[in-house]
């Protein structure tokens, strides 16, 4: 059941729509609902929405089991989550829309074109892109001053960082609303300029690509390369394990974007990465990447 639309001050966020129910999308929906927002989860596939809501329920159950939250808090979070397969209907409800579709600029632009048909004038529109410059996504947006990047990190309900990307036309008011929203989620926001890869993806990718090159050249095993960074530099997770968690296909897409936008040498994807993606070995989500995993 949908709430009645009411007038509100521009910048006030109460209702959030998340587009894309995959790993990032359902994680974003989870933290928004946990922070007290009413959340609608949308995806082109209705089954994906059901799967995303099921995974949120599983994560909430784990939180209760580990005494990280009460059963009442978990139930309240779940009650604030709604499925809405119609994108135009979902957008009409939103004070904030967060797009979490795959890293494909043309796909994201098509989504925004549909969203802006019904999006209220005062609402914020955000992309969770990890690498695509916002200027490529803001083409023909009717309110570019209300558009920015909200780059979350996986797993969203555990990672404290939220990268807020300010596009050229993003207004001061929109940025302030986004920062307030980030803090309401319990995240630590950083503000970065609209450059391919922003801050986190660019730095993380540089380390990840070099680790893949080292493995490709036989410098050391995947486990030992990761252990070097975990024990020598106190990284909580080595760069190859992290690539498996993020997804090799996602890392490849980011590398190709940065190679095209910044430097074709520094960010050239190693052949090993291309080969593993071509073989369908995308990391943890497929059961094998640089490591082998148990059942998916």
Tell me about the largest β-sheet: 8 strands, mixed
The structural domain count equals 2
Give the rounded overall mean pLDDT: 94
Kindly report the name of the CATH homologous superfamily of the largest domain.
Answer: NAD(P)-binding Rossmann-like Domain
Give the strand content.
Answer: 5-15%
What class do helices, strands and sheet pairing give? alpha/beta
Strands, count:
8
The H-and-E topology, N to C, reads as EHEHHEHEHEHEEHEHHHHH
Q: Count of DSSP helices?
A: 12
> How much helix is in the residues?
40-55%
Morphology call:
globular
CATH class of the largest domain, named Alpha Beta
Q: Catalogue the unreliable spans.
A: 1-10
**Order of the strands making up the biggest sheet:** 3-2-1-4-5-6-7-8
User: Measured on Cα atoms, how large is the radius of gyration?
Assistant: 19 Å
* Through-space gap between termini: 34 Å
CATH topology of the largest domain: Rossmann fold
Please state the second-level CATH architecture of the largest domain. Answer: 3-Layer(aba) Sandwich
Secondary structure topology:
Layout: E1 15-19, H1 23-34, E2 38-42, H2 46-65, H3 71-79, E3 81-83, H4 87-92, E4 96-99, H5 105-115, E5 124-127, H6 134-137, E6 147-151, E7 161-166, H7 172-184, E8 188-193, H8 200-216, H9 222-232, H10 239-246, H11 248-261, H12 271-278
Helix pairs in contact: 1-2, 2-3, 8-10, 8-11
Overview of the molecule:
The structure is a single chain. By secondary structure, this protein is α/β, with parallel strands linked by helices. It has two domains: 15-193, 3-Layer(aba) Sandwich (Rossmann fold), CATH 3.40.50.720; 201-282, N-(1-d-carboxylethyl)-l-norvaline Dehydrogenase, domain 2. The protein is 45% helix and 13% strand. The chain has twelve helices and eight strands. The protein has helices at 23-34, 46-65, 71-79, 87-92, 105-115, 134-137, 172-184, 200-216, 222-232, 239-246, 248-261, 271-278, and strands spanning 15-19, 38-42, 81-83, 96-99, 124-127, 147-151, 161-166, 188-193. It has an eight-stranded mixed beta sheet with strand order 3-2-1-4-5-6-7-8, with helices on both faces. Helix 1 crosses helix 2 (46-65) and helix 2 packs antiparallel against helix 3 (71-79). The longest helix has 20 residues, at 46-65. The chain is globular, with a radius of gyration of 19 Å. It starts with 14 loop residues before the first strand and ends in an 18-residue tail after the last helix.
